[in-house]
């Protein structure tokens, strides 16, 4: 009885695996189209159409830097160039600069309070909203050094406590 049930289950698993394998192979273009599919090149995904409406939609959805780069990448001969440049100057740049100043102020305040992690995070945020993020590299590296030094100071204090306890 047990042997028959085991044989039936093995047969069932074999049938299911063969059906799954054949269905996967049937869905592959090389099996269904023959040699012609090997020469065909897969279509590349199209770049999003950059126009003023897409720039405004990106900005409205909170993607300030994406809208900024799209507006900056438009060429003067584009149809919506004037409209996008006006939106860039009147809306995107002021918002980007406000965010930049906000994160930079928080980072400076956290640095003065010696909250290195918070300062590091906010300097990275400020760099993200900056047109020249390399300006913030020295601040970010300085915060990383401060964090490492803080870790070393804590470990040194812990080791001294342990040494004192042993003595």
The number of strands is 0
- Indicate the structural class: mainly alpha
- Strand proportion, as a percent range, falls in under 5%
The dominant shape is flat
Mean pLDDT: 82
User: Helix count, per DSSP?
Assistant: 8
Helix content: over 70%
Give an overview in words:
By secondary structure, the protein is an all-alpha fold. The protein is built from eight helices and no strands. Helix 4 packs antiparallel against helix 5 (64-73), helix 4 (52-60) packs parallel to helix 6 and helix 5 (64-73) crosses helix 6. It has helices spanning 2-27, 29-33, 36-39, 52-60, 64-73, 81-112, 116-129, 137-166.
Which key features would you list for this structure?
single chain, mainly alpha, 167 residues, 0% strand
Summarize the structure.
The protein is mainly α. It has helices at residues 2-27, 29-33, 36-39, 52-60, 64-73, 81-112, 116-129, 137-166. Helix 6 runs antiparallel to helix 7.
Architecture blueprint of SSEs:
Layout: H1 2-27, H2 29-33, H3 36-39, H4 52-60, H5 64-73, H6 81-112, H7 116-129, H8 137-166
């Amino acid at each position: 009885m047990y042997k028959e049930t085991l044989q039936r289950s093995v047969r069932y698993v074999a049938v299911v695996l063969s059906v799954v394998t054949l269905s996967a192979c049937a869905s592959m273009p090389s099996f269904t189209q023959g040699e012609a599919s090997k020469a065909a090149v897969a279509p590349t995904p199209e770049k999003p159409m950059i126009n003023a409406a897409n720039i405004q939609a990106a900005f409205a959805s909170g993607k300030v830097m994406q809208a900024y780069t799209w507006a900056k990448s438009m060429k003067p001969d584009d149809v919506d160039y004037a409209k996008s440049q006006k939106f860039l100057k009147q809306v995107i740049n002021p918002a980007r600069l406000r965010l930049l100043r906000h994160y930079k102020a928080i980072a400076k305040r956290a640095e003065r309070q010696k909250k290195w992690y918070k300062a590091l995070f906010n300097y990275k945020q400020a760099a993200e909203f900056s047109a020249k993020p390399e300006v913030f590299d020295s601040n970010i590296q300085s915060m990383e050094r401060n964090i490492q030094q803080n870790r070393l100071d804590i470990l040194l204090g812990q080791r001294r406590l342990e040494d004192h306890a042993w003595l």
